[in-house]
Write a structure and sequence with these properties.
Elements (H helix, E strand, L loop, with lengths): L1 H8 L2 E9 H8 L10 E8 L6 E4 H6 L4 E8 L5 E14 L2 E10 L5 E3 L1 H6 L2 E4 L4 E4 L11
Parallel strand pairs: 2-7, 3-6
Antiparallel strand pairs: 1-2, 1-5, 4-5, 5-6, 8-9
Length: 145
């Protein structure tokens, strides 16, 4: 039982697709060709202890995302820093997608996928198999009190 618990405490990676949602809106309006959408596939580390989506600065630049402000972040080692916040990120994984803001980290090599993304896309971490599974395979379910 302890080994299984330790596996679920760990982090694992999945591949997600990111796109500039402003570009997608221009495609919908017929102003931009679909192949001109700035998009990329990146490795995302799933961390249920993290709150937000975090992107490497290089990915934010590749997608043409401009900062809309700054946020204070606190790291696991207790340090605090101010980091840029970007928005209008279209994230897709296994046929589910949503729009998110992200913190930009200058030294990161992979994205960080936190609880907001998991909740919004209704994905459950399967730590044993190191993947994300939809709670319902057919649709996103939102819990309302």
């Amino acid at each position: 039982m302890i080994a299984q618990k330790d596996q679920c405490m760990g982090r694992f990676s999945v591949e997600v697709e990111l796109a500039n949602n402003d570009d997608l809106a221009l495609v919908r309006r017929g102003i931009l060709a679909p192949e001109q959408v700035r998009r990329t596939r990146v490795r995302g580390v799933v961390d249920t202890g993290a709150t937000r989506l975090v992107l490497p600065a290089a990915v934010a630049e590749q997608l043409g995302l401009t900062p809309s402000g700054e946020v204070d972040v606190r790291y696991a080692d207790g340090r605090s820093e101010r980091r840029p916040l970007v928005g209008d990120i279209h994230l897709s994984y296994i046929g589910r997608s949503g729009l998110f803001n992200a913190i930009v980290e200058p030294q990161r090599q992979s994205a960080l996928i936190g609880a907001i993304v998991l909740e919004d896309l209704d994905l459950i971490p399967d730590c044993v198999n190191q993947t994300l599974i939809p709670r319902d395979p057919d649709r996103i379910i939102s819990e309302v009190e």
